[in-house]
Design brief:
single chain; mainly alpha; 5 helices; globular
Amino acid sequence: MEATNISEEVLALKVQGNDAYREGDYERAISKFSEALSLDPNSDAVLCNRSMAYGALKDWERSAADAQKAVTITKNYEKAYFRLVKAHVWREVTNIVC
C-alpha cells in the first residue's frame, strides 16, 4: 500500500519520471524522481519508482537503498519489498559472476 498524500508538483514530476522510464531514458527518470524527492523526501511511491529506474541501470546499491527507505516509510508496501529483494538478489548474482 502506498501513501497517497502527494503534492501536485511532486505528482507532475513523478509522471514525467514514469514517462522517461517508459521511453527507456532511465537517467532522466532518475533525475525527475530525484527532483520530486527534493520536494517530498518521504514519498514512498517516488522512492519505489526511482528504485526501479536504478535497477534498470543495474545500480543495485541505490535501487536497494530507495526500496529500503520506501518500506521504512510504508511497512506493507509490497511493490517496494519486491524491488528491495530484486536488488539484493541481483547484487549477489553480480558479485558471484564478476
